[in-house]
Amino acid sequence: MSLLIGTFTIGFILSLLALGVFISFRIFAFPDITADGSVTLGAAVAATLMVHGVSPPLASLAAFVAGMLAGACTGTLYTRFKINSLLSGILVMTALYSINLHIMGKSNVPLLSVTTLATQSEQIGLKLMRGAVSFGLAGWDVSVRDASVLGAVALTVALTAALLYLFLRTNLGMAMRATGDNVQMVRAMGVNDANMIVFGVAISNGFVALSGALLAQYQGFADVGMGIGMVVWGLASVIIGEALVGTNELGLTIVGAVMGSVLFRLLVAVALRWGLSPNDLKLITALFVFCALIVPQLLRKNRMRSAHA
Amino acid sequence: MLDIQGISKTFNLGTPNAVCSLRGVNLELTAGSWVIIIGTNGSGKSTLLNSVAGTFLVDEGEIVLAGRHITQWPEYARAELIGRVFQNPFSGTSPSLTIQENLSLAARRGVGRGLGWGLKSSLLAKMREEVARLNMGLEGRLENAIGSLSGGQRQALTLLMATWLRPELLLLDEHTAALDPKSADLVIALTEQVVVRDKLTTLMVTHSMQQAASLGDRLIMMHRGQIIHDFQGAEKRRLRPDDLLARFGDVRRAEQLDETAAEMLAEQYI
Which chain A positions have a beta carbon within 8 Å of B86's beta carbon? Predict the structure, then answer.
């Protein structure tokens, strides 16, 4: 049971990453690789601040801001210096590796003896349950600590997703969505499209960094290598989410990205349980995204062929 | 209102493909005038429109609109003064946004965009009213994505968007060329309505001699990056499509004359 709860918790935490990838890849059609670096950046900033006694919520917020800065760098490279979008992301991601090491001062910062959002929500949960360590749920013995962390994470994600939805429907947010859709029209409407892209990639990386910060607090350490392959992971979640909701309606696609992340984490947990080697995880993830990208093409080809026949 | 002084533009400068699209064009528009631009392919008529819109910066010359020197302004900044409808019906709207979201973008053309709620109920009411006036039955479908509409419907909406806030200048770039005849007539009727109603200063490129003869109060004809004819007042009103075709015939004959003369010279001197 605690394994299942852990799976859901990580799924929700990584859904913030999926939302970040959704913003860059789907809304702006901007393949942003910076995310691999900004997951770690968020973790590094939050962990280092908390070790130095900063309160966990404030440290997480700082991680969000740091991610935004990284994203703004990528966006600026792309818009101001006309560097290819993929290369812009790769440059910033590579630079972030050194920056992250500088922030942490070493390759791994443990958080086991530090107050984090995870330990804080555990304490709140224990207080609410008046000291009981576990409760029964449908015949299972559920640890109060695990459940309260899951609850806190789910609440955070719901709140963030709602904020994102509302933001994308403001004047600014609509201008951003239109920028990814039709640059010519957006300029004709007096929108500075370069600024929109910089700001959009910044927000995207803010989400990603926040996801990294929460992940570090949940697993109890920040590690310089924890961001590797995260973009593909996020993309897989977004693709699953789109398949789940099957519409372009904004609110549903956001919900879909969150659901996709949780479902993907579940699938991975099941696969690991069945004996998949953790070493193969990234390979499988990449293969999955590859298939998800080509299957629609094959389907379309088949449909055309049968339409001709 | 619009004052264009000696603008020139060469594309691919310094390469073998250099194309001189505008050669020292001068044009002055008084407020409220509706100027039609016609010309042969590659005559620079769309380039002229785009240079005013700011799609690129001109190499030489000066553009003044409503007393503002906009020659060096980026495209998005000029949008504060200019409304545009493009030739391609897909260019003027954002397909994955709904009709009402597109219109709300237009309601803030050239105005700052902050965290204000985009779809206020007062704005929505005005949208229903204005969209109903298009007579396309779209007022009940404001929450549909624009991507689901036909080219004519999109072009009508683009026109509505371009004129939602009264622009100092309206630019129409062959905005009915990609439409079927029925939709084209409809969009032209809507264009006439709004231009006359709001007394908009308008520059309109067209390749329909019918439209060129019947619309507007002034007509300029372009050829090889220059204005070669400028019909105004009574002269413009008397113009018929056949007159315009005859003028094009003259241009073509003069061209051929140039070519045979060049050949003769080549034979004699090379």
Answer: 184, 188
Whole-Å CA distances, A203 to A14, A208, B66, B198, B213: 16, 9, 38, 41, 52
Among candidates B106, B114, B116 on the partner chain, residue whose Cβ is nearest the Cβ of A189: B106
Of A65, A62, A95, A92, nearest to A76 by C-alpha is A92
Confidence class for position B156, pLDDT limits 50, 70, 90:
very high
Question: Does B164 reach chain A within 8 Å, measured CB to CB?
Answer: no
> Which residues does A172 contact at the CB level (< 8 Å), separation at least 6?
B113, B114, B115
> Is B213 a domain residue?
yes
Count: domains in chain A? 1
Residue A302 has a pLDDT of 82
Pick from A171, A174, A185: CB nearest B93? A185
> What is the rounded distance in angstroms from the CA atom of residue B116 to the CA atom of residue A166?
10
Of A82, A79, A86, the residue nearest A34 (C-alpha): A86
Examine residue B254 and state whether it is found in any structural domain, yes or no.
no
Q: In the structure, what pLDDT confidence band is assigned to residue B119 with cuts at 50, 70 and 90?
A: confident
Q: Are the C-beta atoms of residues B234 and B65 closer than 8 Å to each other? A: no
- The answer to whether residue B97 neighbours chain A at the CB level (below 8 Å) is yes
Question: Which CATH number is A44's domain given?
Answer: 1.10.3470
Pick from A174, A177, A192: CB nearest B76 = A192
How sure is the predictor about B270, in pLDDT bands with cuts at 50, 70 and 90? low
Record: contact A174-B105, CB cut-off 8 A: yes
Q: Is residue B110 very low, low, confident or very high in pLDDT (cuts 50, 70, 90)?
A: confident
Segments forming the whole domain that contains residue B96:
2-110+117-239
Asked if the structure places residue A300 within a domain, the reply is no
A26 touches chain B (CB under 8 A): no
* Cα gap A74→A84, rounded to integer Å: 10
- Report, as ranges of residue numbers, the positions in chain A whose pLDDT lies below 70: 1, 309
Residue B229 CA to residue B81 CA, distance in Å, equals 27
Residue of A170, A172, A178 with shortest CB distance to B94: A178
Dihedral angle at the C-alpha atoms of A60, A66, A68, A73, nearest 10 degrees?
Answer: -170
Residue A251 belongs to some domain of the structure:
yes
Residue pointed to by tokens 């528009």? B29
Measure B209 CA to nearest chain A CA, in Å. Answer: 28
Interface-testing mutation among A22, A27, A79, A174, with chain B (most B C-beta atoms within 10 A): A174
Q: Which residue of A has its CA nearest to B167?
A: A189
Q: Which of A297-301, B64-68, B97-101 has the lowest mean pLDDT?
A: A297-301
